[in-house]
Structure formats: C-alpha cells, structure tokens
Amino acid sequence: MTIACRRVYEETSAADGTRVLVDRVWPRGMRKEDAHLDEWLRDVAPSTELRRWYGHRPDRFPEFRRRYLAELRAPGRRQAMAHLRELAAGHDVTLLTATKDVEHSQAAVLVERLTG
Q1: Could you read off the pLDDT tens digit of each residue along the chain, which spans 116 residues?
Q2: Three-class SS state of 56
Q3: Measured by CB atoms within 10 angstroms of the end CB, which terminus of the chain is less buried, N or C?
Q4: 2 to each of 6, 39, 64, 96, 105, how far by Cα in Å?
Q5: Which string of b and e fits 45-83 if b means at least 16 CB within 10 Å?
Q6: 39 neighbors 16 (Cβ within 8 angstroms)
Q7: What is the domain partition of the chain in residue ranges?
Q8: Pair 9, 83: CB distance under 8 Å
Q9: Could you give the CA distance from residue 40 to residue 38 in angstroms, rounded to a whole number?
Q10: Global pTM?
C-alpha cells in the first residue's frame, strides 16, 4: 500500500492507484474528464475559512496543519476520513490537489495522517 500526493494537473500514472481529489473547489481550467478521478472528497478538504486564512503561505503551514487536523476531528469530517481510510486500506492511493506547493498542502497533511 502506497499513499502519495501530487498535483492533479500532472500526467496520470499506472502507479497512481485510486485517484482522489482532496480540494474543496474544482481545479481551475481542468475538465472533469481530464482529471481521471476515482473520487472527489470535498468533505475532507479544509474549510473555506481555513483555506483563505492559509493562502498557501509556507510560513503559516505549521498553524494550518494544526487547525486542519482539528477540523478533521469534527463529527462531519470523521465520516469522510473513514471513507478515505477505506479507500487506502491495502491499496495504492494518490491524493490530488491543484496547489503548486504540494509539500505544504492539505494533501500532504492527509498522507501524514493516513500513514502515521
């Protein structure tokens, strides 16, 4: 089982396994048929408020990570996380995001959470 994260705009790979978009909003300029997704889990994405506060500023990433993990513990998010764990159980999964800095994204936090 491998859990990876990368940009949704990158070429698909046979090694991707199940491809899951973990962004709340659809990637700009991407047609749905070009994304080659197996699932789009909006409910596992950060809230709009948190996403806007973070603004993909790497200096805010530690606080973003802390707040995002707190959001994931909320009752409405537990079901989405449980579903994501089911998808990853014994399977290769690639978490996709539109952000340019994947290392400082919710996808990276989710990989850490699922593998830690």
Answers
A1: 799 999 999 999 989 999 999 999 999 999 999 999 999 999 999 999 999 999 999 999 999 999 999 999 998 889 999 999 999 998 999 999 999 999 999 999 999 999 98
A2: coil
A3: C
A4: 13, 17, 25, 14, 18
A5: bbeeebbeebeeeeeebeebbebbeebbeeeebeebbee
A6: no
A7: 3-115
A8: no
A9: 7
A10: 0.94
Of 32, 10, 2, 8, the C-alpha closest to 21 is 8
Both tokens assigned to 106: 């919710």
Instruction: Choose among 77, 65, 45, 58: nearest CA to 109.
Output: 65
Strands (E) in the chain, as ranges, are: 3-7, 18-21, 39-40, 93-97
SS3 4: strand
Q: What are residue 100's phi and psi, to 5 degrees?
A: -75, -30
Partners of 93 in the β-ladder: 3, 18
Task: Give the residues across from 6 on adjacent strands.
Answer: 96
Question: Which amino acid is it at 81?
Answer: M
Phi, psi for 16 (deg, rounded to 5): -60, -35
User: What are 81's two structure tokens?
Assistant: 């996380």
